[in-house]
What does this fold into?
Amino acid sequence: MGLLKLLINDPFTFILLAIPLLYSVILHELAHGWVAYRMGDSTAKRLGRLSLNPLRHLDPIGTLMLFLFGFGWAKPVPVNFSNLHNTRKGLILVSSAGIITNMLLAFLAFFLYRFLSPDPSGVLSTLLYYLAQINIILASFNLIPIPPLDGSKILMGFAPARLQYTLSRLEPYGFFIIIGLLYFGALDPLIDLFRWMILALISVLLP
It folds into this structure.
């Protein structure tokens, strides 16, 4: 995403961008907790995670990854899926909430970029462009169906019990699998596919 290059070449714009980017990750997690709360699980609310306070959400490594590589994560919002009114439906809706939030933020950034920033080289245009792109990457990355990413839980919501069990067994090792696959570029085609799909959807809504 060129964020490290932006930090070196234009620190002022990078600083302006830092807060919206951090809140893109925070709102992703907040959306999980809010939908879970609406569906019957108050775990996140009881633990104070339904908050816009970044100190309640930020993960140091995930934040560093966000600015160095264009994707990252916050501390996962705790969800007890057994408390939800409908576990299978809850898996799908709670897990997709963060992705949908990032897609909506990307759409809003593109909308504002088109109508409120006539100078494509200006600070506002740069901020909106990076905000849109980072949210598309966050949504695309989280759609990957490998635990603990949201895509795996969405898949579990549709999958038979046997596949659910297999995916749940992978979760303790999922982070290392993802890092390894990213290192070798094995996930790039899948992320590019999801990115293309999201951009196609936005282009339909914002021709």
About this structure: The chain is about 70% helix and 0% strand.
